[in-house]
Amino acid sequence: FEQMFRNSLVKWDMQYLPKIRRNTDPSILEWVKINRFPINKPYVIIFPDVTGMSIHKPKCLNWSTAQVKALGAILSQQGISLLVFSNSPGKYYDTFTKVGPFNLQFMLYFINSATAILSQEIDFLLLGLLNSEALLVTECNKNELNIGKNAQFVGIEPRVFNQIDLTPNLVANEVRQYVG
Length: 180
What we know:
Blueprint: H1 2-8, H2 26-34, E1 43-47, H3 65-77, E2 81-85, E3 97-100, H4 104-111, E4 116-119, H5 122-131, E5 135-138, H6 147-154, E6 160-162, H7 168-179
Parallel strand pairs: 1-2, 1-4, 2-3, 4-5, 5-6
């Protein structure tokens, strides 16, 4: 019986995972230039609000506007930029944060080369897992939404910092250690 079971399964192969091409849209390059965003230096992406693009209910990050701005201030002292994607960007404009256009094409472009990703919705963390080398920071640790288990499933070395009650200082320290 065990042999029949083993022979009936298809081996998992990484070549079948979708890879998102890094298509450089002129509007993205124009935004980078206008906002003087240091694309070639370390940066952290955060999706602090519900985007409406996910079907999953659990929240993987539950931060206030003040915590997002505090993270931006701490990271800027370390030479790391903070890029926020939100459908209500006015809340996050600050000296230490850049707010990107709420556009999926922009989000995918920046996810590919981010140093770390934080998100309230799991979908952006999963995109980061599959399409970047970013550190994934989350408070979500529930069964199928556990990023470490998802990384193990697809055969990727997990780059996850998972802790309940994340604080900006804690996240900044983890990012600094990850950057090296």
